[in-house]
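Late entry, written up from scratch paper. The run itself happened at the end of the previous shift, but nothing got recorded in the book at the time, so transcribing now.
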Amino acid sequence: MKSDSMTKLLKEKNAGISTVKANKILLAMEFLEDKERPSSKYPDKMKKFKALTEKGLVYGENRENDNSPGQSSPYYYVEKFDELLSLIQKSV
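Output as recorded:
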């Protein structure tokens, strides 16, 4: 299935909600989770990132980030995004 970033899909749908706000809602719904990995530049620091949970994988996939090994980014299925957006908007 074709997938894209939350930012791009929200803009395409003229959703009127920011990616930050949508992510907060998805975290509360347990579709997203905060994760950490050690920084490659500063060994004593941790880098934070978001990833789709098992529940969230219905709506997208976690893509490995080529520039940051051990880190992924959520990408959302275009065909399922209307359904996900509806759930987000009900929680606003």
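The longest helix spans residues 19-28.
(Scratch paper discarded after transcription.)
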